[in-house]
């Protein structure tokens, strides 16, 4: 039940990421329109919104990957519990077989035992792959100005006026950067534990 809830949460976070991607594209279209009309202040607001949506999409995607990794670890723990029980049964059977010294039975039990370990190795590798695939993403500085220039280029317009160099969005960027650093550190600690 908990495993299902984790997988459901990961899919929900992934959906939210895609929704933010769509909203980012809509904001980019609004930037082009504002630049074409020569309204740079409105274009800057839409650029800030687009960057915020992009960062939110990345955050949702990152959380989805982290929840997915947790689900994989839970699945591995459940499977390892089952394997441990199976191996306990195999060991008991081995004791009985060794007493009778039937070589065919001993060989069959050893094959079963090796199969259990192979299954455990595959599941452990799957968990390690999942954890290593949850990567952190960083976004470059001056995103708003770069996005404005990109949208102007796509619209075939020249930004001949100097854009104001205000502190717009720097507080939000530093908070997002701090959260990103914390998430990166926590992910590194999780990798070290595995």
TrEMBL record:
Protein name listed in UniProt? CHM1B protein
PANTHER family per the UniProt record, alphabetical: CHARGED MULTIVESICULAR BODY PROTEIN
Similarity comment: Belongs to the SNF7 family.
In the record, biological process GO terms are:
vacuolar transport
Source organism, top-level taxon: Eukaryota
Q: One Pfam family this chain carries?
A: Snf7
Q: Which InterPro entries match?
A: Snf7_fam (IPR005024)
Please give the residue ranges the record annotates as the region Disordered. Answer: 162-194
């Amino acid at each position: 039940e908990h495993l299902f809830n984790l997988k459901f949460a990961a899919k929900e976070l992934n959906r939210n990421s895609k929704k933010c991607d769509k909203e980012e594209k809509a904001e980019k279209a609004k930037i082009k329109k504002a630049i074409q009309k020569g309204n740079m202040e409105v274009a800057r607001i839409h650029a800030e919104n687009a960057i915020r949506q992009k960062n939110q999409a990345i955050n949702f995607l990152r959380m989805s990957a982290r929840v997915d990794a947790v689900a994989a670890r839970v699945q591995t723990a459940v499977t390892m519990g089952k394997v441990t029980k199976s191996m306990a049964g195999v060991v008991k059977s081995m004791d009985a077989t060794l007493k009778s010294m039937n070589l065919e039975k001993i060989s069959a039990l050893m094959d079963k035992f090796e199969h259990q370990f192979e299954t455990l190795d595959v599941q452990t590798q799957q968990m390690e792959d999942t954890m290593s695939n949850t990567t952190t993403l960083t976004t470059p500085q001056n995103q708003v100005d770069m996005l404005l220039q990109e949208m102007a280029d796509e619209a075939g317009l020249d930004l001949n006026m100097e854009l104001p160099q205000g502190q717009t969005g720097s507080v939000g960027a530093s908070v997002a950067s701090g959260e990103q650093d914390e998430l990166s550190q926590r992910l590194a600690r999780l990798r070290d534990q595995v």
